[in-house]
Write a structure and sequence with these properties.
Distance between the termini: 50 Å
Shape: globular
Number of domains: 1
Helix content: 40-55%
CATH class: Alpha Beta
Radius of gyration: 20 Å
Length: 303
């Protein structure tokens, strides 16, 4: 990776890539993989960032099947390694002269009841889902500002709008992404850069399987019944979730708009949930959630 120190003004601006360029973080699976392939099909040069390049196999196999593998460049990027972020962005600009779209997709989901989630796990959650997203965005902003154009997609969650029990670390990170994106949108609009929040509901992607496999719970936890209820509901919802390709198609569609909205909530039941939070008193929604969880306790014990 090139480690030379350049400012935005030092980089080539007269010979940009003939294809528009998109950088996707967390591209080895899930939304990131689908977004990478979908945008390559639309003619984009895709910079697919992956924390461990040994995990690029699934992406490149699907890219070859779709005959777009020559448009996808895999780069190693850990969003918590800020030095590497700068190197990847500089190398992309030196090679292609432009970054038209940034998709901040890299993330993980840490769950468990607040009392039982160790502080190190909270830090890991925020380092990847929030501070990593901020670091990549900051590295790209000077170039988009200089171009006076660009789209930045922050993959948030309906959990960034509504807090769910059992997922406080994940929810907190997505609430942070939401506030950051609102402020960033207002700062960048005068420079022609659009900031968009994608807010998926339940979609069956690998982030949730990994999250279910690493739930934090103490032996003989006093929260076990409630946690079982939350996890059973989550797994049931995901098994009946919407097609993750919807998110990739939405980004392809929104990228053609001159004035996209700030928020795009997507997924089964998401609009009803958000509508309910806005219109109903909080104690009504709270009561509904708690009663629902109570009903789920009995079957949860029998698993």
């Amino acid at each position: 990776m090139n480690t030379s120190n350049h400012s935005p003004a030092d980089l080539p601006s007269s010979l940009p890539s003939s294809e528009p360029v998109i950088l996707v973080t967390g591209a080895s699976s899930g939304f990131g993989l689908l977004i990478s392939i979908t945008m390559a099909k639309k003619g984009y040069r895709v910079i697919a960032s992956i924390r461990d390049l040994s995990n690029q196999g699934q992406l490149m196999e699907q890219a070859k099947a779709a005959k777009v593998d020559l448009l996808i460049d895999c780069v190693q990027l850990d969003v918590t390694d800020h030095r590497t972020i700068s190197e990847v962005i500089i190398e992309t600009m030196e090679r292609y002269g432009r970054i038209d779209i940034l998709v901040n997709n890299a993330g993980l989901a840490i769950g468990g009841y607040i009392e039982e989630v160790p502080l190190e796990a909270w830090r890991q959650q925020m380092d990847i889902n929030y501070f990593g997203l901020v670091a990549v965005t900051k590295a790209v902003l000077p170039y988009m500002r200089q171009q006076r154009s660009g789209h930045i997609y922050n993959i948030s969650s309906v959990g960034g709008r509504v807090g769910f029990p059992g997922y406080a670390p994940y929810v907190a990170s997505k609430f942070a992404v939401e506030g950051f994106s609102e402020a960033l949108r207002l700062e960048m609009q005068p420079f022609g850069v659009q900031v968009i929040l994608i807010e998926p509901g339940a979609y069956p992607t690998s982030i949730w399987k990994k999250g279910f496999d690493s739930i934090h719970a103490s032996p003989h936890s006093p929260y076990q019944d409630q946690l079982d209820a939350v996890l059973n509901y989550s797994k049931s919802t995901l098994n009946n979730g919407a097609d993750p390709q919807d998110i990739a198609d939405a980004i392809a569609r929104i990228s053609r708009l001159r004035r996209p909205k700030l928020r795009y909530a997507m997924g089964k039941g998401v609009h009803f949930l958000l509508f309910s939070k806005v219109l109903l008193p909080w104690n009504w929604l709270e009561s509904f959630v708690l009663k629902f969880m109570k009903k789920r306790k009995a079957p949860a014990r029998g698993l």
